[in-house]
Design brief:
Radius of gyration: 29 Å
Structural class: alpha/beta
Oligomer: single chain
Shape: globular
Distance between the termini: 34 Å
Length: 713
């Protein structure tokens, strides 16, 4: 829709003809360039479309003086940063920070050959020395000279370790768990001494009082029991059998009764009885003490090893189940605490970016309810450490939920029991709205909208197993032609759910088109439980229009992509204003994330790079923000920017604002280096998520998957 500019020609020496086209740079042509043109030749100056035309084609109405022409990208370019020509051979089988590529046998063979080639070319002198982790951590090793790893601290400092970052160590010199490996180890001995040559900014001006102030760190014993299928699921299996639902030994994480009895007879399941329940809070210990007839924390040796494990016996004996617990007792709803969702701002569980540091950041900006990233029930039952890391909780998260995904009653029920027995959370949420093919093809996520009976079974069984409120999240329907949410919401209270989050799109729409808040309101009018609306809450005006005006039926809203692009949306809603946030204030928010990331993932090299990766993943959303101060007024008022409007190419009011608005991933890396120092040599970054949910001239989205993983899920 941009006006086409025909190329201009100029006659040079001889008969040669030189073609000149409109400049695509952000600055006008220089004088030296103009002098090379003939006086009769004129370069066409690019001009943006009129305001009305830009709004009609789905662009954010930015003042004309800030708009620049968007350079056309080659179809062969990618968003990978840090890739060199030498890496092209390895790209097919390599892995990048932020993406995952399924490796075939051919890829693995290529990687092995490449690794061997580097080793042969480097020779023995270039082989990397492997340092002893225990020595780096404690400055000593229990194995002493018999350790097969190096204990040469001087070699590590001079040859291997990267330059320390400026500022204090967040853990302090005495309590730092990383020792010599800490990237702030210089402050352990000499204190804070800023280096004038440092390009990075000092993030910590003093040690943090409680750097790792988080909970739900599940012990390795629990993960080992899940991986070895020795975890006692008698409580979940008993409820499932009483409901007449299938329990299968094929589910990873536990066997049927005969399998468990066989293990008991062999004496292999005795240790499981010791850590039946492993909640670490004092409140849980008090509850167990008050219900001594139901729970027993007696160890076989009679000693309390004070290892954060609180143990108990099952509520009924598997061998004599009928005598101790009848079907009516098992299926009797338990009394649970209630959560008031009314008018509370709910940060959605966000894949990859909704990590603990980001949730902690949103809490400082006004979020009331937070929820961990979606975890797969089957992966939790396998004891996958990466999956269990998703349930970690910071102490600032006063109302915190865990979201899980599964499509079968036995695996989901056992997962609910494992969570209920081992972590502290205020509610458990079941994701029944995920549109990703990998999830739907396994009968979970949005596919459950096509199977309402199974949806009911999952909610009923999970509610009976867990001791905290149960909620679930879904969409309007699976197909555009079938919206089914209104058909089952009147019965949700009977199922046992405490609330329902409804995304105002179908699975077929994924994240395209605008969320249908009118349908959400109709569902809320017919619902027997509080309805939490979800979709396209990007400004304070969106919140007023969709939630405040319908507060008699809609309890509150869940904010997802709006919080990724502008996490200060919670502040805007609570203060009822459009915040024209400055670039300095936005950069300070990035600094806070970097601080929280180093406190959570650690101050060693691995922790710094983890923080760098997740910061860049988040910045792949933040660059889409258009500052309020450069918007064009329409009829004397600022327009309400929609989530589906595409920001044009623009320059900011200062250099920092221009950098924050850049869609070039290399610019994001430069900003990260100001916070976390230089990236490692050969380091690569590829954004994990895509977003194409912008309107086009036909008032429809470009059909993309605005917050979805790569094609591999």
């Amino acid at each position: 829709h941009f006006p086409k500019s025909s190329p201009k020609t100029a006659r040079g020496k001889g008969n040669a003809r030189t073609t000149y086209t409109a400049r695509r740079e952000m600055t006008p042509p220089s004088k030296s360039d103009d002098d090379t043109l003939d006086k009769n030749d004129v370069v066409d100056a690019w001009k943006p479309l009129a305001l009305e035309a830009r709004v009609r084609r789905g662009e954010v109405p930015v003042q004309e003086k800030f708009i620049r022409e968007r350079a056309k990208r080659s179809t062969e370019t990618t968003e990978t940063v840090g890739t060199t020509p030498e890496d092209e051979e390895e790209r097919a089988g390599g892995k990048t920070s932020g993406g995952f590529q399924k490796r075939t046998k051919k890829m693995k063979k290529a990687m092995t050959m490449k690794k061997g080639k580097r080793r042969n070319e480097g020779g023995e002198d270039n082989e990397e020395v492997q340092m002893c982790f225990q020595f780096l951590k404690n400055a000593s090793c229990a194995k002493g000279e018999t350790c097969r790893f190096s204990h040469d601290a001087d070699y590590y400092r001079l040859k291997m370790k990267k330059k320390d970052l400026p500022g204090w160590c967040p853990f302090g010199s005495e309590k730092c768990p990383f020792g010599l490996a800490c990237r702030f180890s210089g402050s352990h001995e000499d204190g804070f001494a800023p280096d004038e040559e440092d390009e990075a900014i000092a993030l910590f001006e003093a040690p943090v009082a409680n750097p790792r102030d988080d909970t739900n760190d599940v012990t390795n014993d629990v993960k080992y029991a899940l991986a070895r299928r020795t975890f006692d699921f008698s409580r979940a299996d008993g409820i499932l059998k009483a409901m007449g639902l299938r329990t299968s030994d094929e589910v990873r994480g536990g066997g049927d009764d005969s399998t468990n009895n066989r293990k008991d007879n062999d004496g292999k399941n005795q240790q499981q009885q010791k850590y039946k329940r492993m909640k670490t809070s004092e409140n849980e210990k008090r509850v167990i003490a008050e219900n001594a007839d139901e729970y027993s924390d007696d160890d076989d040796d009679g000693n309390n090893n004070n290892n954060n494990n609180v143990t108990s016996e099952p509520a009924f004996d598997k061998e004599d189940e009928n005598k101790t617990a009848s079907v009516d007792q098992l299926l009797k709803p338990k009394e649970k605490k209630t959560i008031d969702f009314k008018n509370k701002l709910y940060l959605a569980p966000l894949t990859t970016v909704g990590n603990l540091p980001f949730r902690r950041l949103c809490k400082t900006l006004g979020a009331d309810i937070t929820c961990g990233e979606m975890a797969l029930a089957t992966s939790l039952l396998k004891g996958d450490a990466r999956e269990w890391a998703l349930v970690r909780r910071h102490k600032s998260e006063d109302i915190f939920g865990v979201q899980i995904c599964g499509g079968h009653s036995d695996s989901l029920g056992r997962c609910v029991q494992a969570l209920d027995d081992t972590i502290e959370c205020d509610f458990i949420d079941i994701n029944m709205g995920c549109p990703i093919d990998l999830i739907c093809n396994k009968g979970a996520g949005s596919m459950l909208l096509e199977k309402p009976k199974r949806m009911e079974e999952l909610v009923r069984s999970s509610n009976l197993i867990c001791s905290v409120p149960l909620t679930f999240k879904t969409r309007m329907g699976y197909k555009d032609t079938s919206r089914v949410a209104h058909t089952f919401v009147p019965r949700i209270k009977e199922w046992g759910a405490s609330a329902l989050t409804l995304h105002g799109r179908t699975r077929a729409q994924r994240y395209s088109r605008e969320a249908d808040w009118e349908y959400i309101r109709k569902v809320a009018d017919a619902s027997s439980v509080p309805i939490i609306g979800n979709g396209d809450i990007y400004t304070y005006h969106d919140y007023v229009e969709n939630v405040v005006k319908n507060q008699d039926s809609i309890a509150t809203c869940m904010i997802a992509r709006g919080a990724l692009v502008k996490p200060w949306i919670f502040t805007e809603i609570k203060e009822q204003r459009n915040w024209d946030i400055s670039s300095h204030e936005r950069f300070e928010i990035l600094k806070d994330f970097a601080r929280f990331g180093l406190e959570h993932w650690g101050s060693d090299e691995r922790g710094v790079e983890q923080t760098r990766r997740f910061l860049l993943e988040w910045m792949s959303f933040t660059y889409r923000y258009t500052p309020v101060g450069i918007l064009e007024t329409i009829d004397g008022q600022l327009p309400n920017v929609s989530m589906t409007q595409r920001p044009p190419k623009f320059v900011g009011r200062d250099d920092m604002e221009t950098m924050l608005a850049s869609d070039d991933a290399s610019v994001w890396c430069d900003l990260c280096e100001k916070l976390l120092g230089k990236a490692p040599e050969g380091w690569k970054f590829t954004p994990k998520h895509k977003s194409n949910a912008y309107k086009n001239a036909n008032s429809e989205s470009e059909g993309g998957m605005a917050f979805e993983m790569e094609s591999n899920g």
